Amino acid sequence: MMCIKKLKFSTENQQYKGIIGTGGIGSGKVFVLNGNHTLGREESRSGYFLNVNDYCKQHIILYYIKILLGPSFSVIPVGRIGDDDAGKSLYTEMSETGFLMDHVEIAAHASTLFSLCFSYPDGTGGNLTTDNSASGGVDAQFIEKVQGEIIKLGPKGIILAAPEVPLNARKKLLDIGKQHKLFCAASFTSEEISQVLNEGILAFVDLLAINMDEAAAITGNSYEGTDITELVQDAVQITQNHNKSIMVSITGGKQGSWCWDGLALSLFPSVDTMVTSTAGAGDAFFAGLLSGTALGLCLAESQQLATLIAGMSVQSPHTINKEIDRASLQKFMRSSGLKFSEKITQLMED
To answer: What pLDDT score was predicted for residue 9?
Structure first.
């Protein structure tokens, strides 16, 4: 992807005009464990629930994209929610954000996706997510209903395929997207990686966004005790074996992020900031990559924008930090202590 000469958030500078995404739509709770040591298989551990708002992947990613790119950029979520209080609340909230909700179905006799986020006192953690919710009913046939929107956007559109809906549905969305020349981006969980590689799904992906644990799953090695640089290089090489033109982003938390654009591997540090919770930070980073892509940034510069969004996201206890907007990101960038490219600085001053 070519880097543009002058960057602003304004409509005329957007290389893409909309995004169609699928992935989890749901809510959850955050449980803080007492003690930083990793929870054992048969261990009982005390802790407490936090009064925070937890969202699922598709919602998190699309929220930041919509907030940053504005009313003219179409955001079309594809998914199912239950006919319950959680589903109704999410539907209202997404509508008020400006999402086009024609392809979010309210499913009778199904519950809305629920995720339990567990967090250690140091801010790290993970998620446990239900797989028998309304989101589990998103299949290839359901995805076909959005084909008209995909055709309408064509080369001016982006496809997002995120976890928490069945893999066959995401594969279908990516397949249709590639057929109609949309830019196709995806992320996968560690437990899905083997199937993704075996089924050739990476052939439909232009940008793969993963974390270190998922990169380790690609290489077949354990993340713990592995040389990080070697792990990143091996993961990139394996993905290229499946798709020579694929771009890859790998996040490493405090260690920063690595992005492969097809020619070079760029490392960019994370922002040294107060961490309240890392839940949702990877999704915030992915949103930054896609926002940069929509603006015509090259991947290394999209990586810098993503670093800002992810860095600010961890300051909030909620998985969506609703204090993030263009103005707050500008302020955060100035206090970050990191050196950003001229285009990112220009973007924040728009």
So the answer is: 61
* 97, burial (CB in 10 Å: exposed 0-12, middle 13-18, buried 19+): middle
Phi then psi for 246, rounded to 5 degrees?
A: -70, 145
Encoded tokens for 2: 């070519």
Tell me the pLDDT tens digit for each residue of 23-76.
999 998 889 999 999 999 999 999 999 888 889 999 999 999 999 999 999 999
pTM of the complete model = 0.90
pLDDT of the residue at 123? 74
DSSP H helices in 43-166: 57-69, 85-97, 140-144, 147-153
- Mean residue pLDDT across the chain: 92
DSSP one-letter string for 14-61: -S--EEEEES--EEEEEEEESSSSPPPTT----EEEEEEEEE-HHHHH
- The reported pLDDT for the residue numbered 316 is 94
Tokens at 83, concatenated: 């006919």
* DSSP β-ladder status, 47-55 and 26-33: antiparallel
For residue 274, what pLDDT is reported?
92
The Cα–Cα gap between 319 and 331 comes to 21
Q: In the predicted model, is pLDDT for residue 13 greater than 80?
A: no
Structural domains in the chain, CATH included, are: 58-111+138-348 (3.40.1190.20)
Q: Which residues are within 8 A (CB) of 315 and not within 5 positions of it... i.e. 6 or more apart?
A: 273, 274, 275, 276, 321
DSSP sequence for 206-262: SEEEEEHHHHHHHHTS-STTS-HHHHHHHHHHHHHHH-TT-EEEEE-GGG-EEEE-S
pLDDT of residue 323: 95
What is the arrangement of strands in the sheet containing 183-186, beginning at the earlier edge strand? 104-107, 74-82, 18-22, 157-161, 183-186, 207-211, 247-251, 257-260, 265-268
- Segment 251-265 shows an average pLDDT of 95
Token pair listed for 104: 């979010």
Structure tokens belonging to residue 223: 């993340």
Residues in the chain: 350
Residues 16 and 299: beta-carbon distance below 8 Å: no
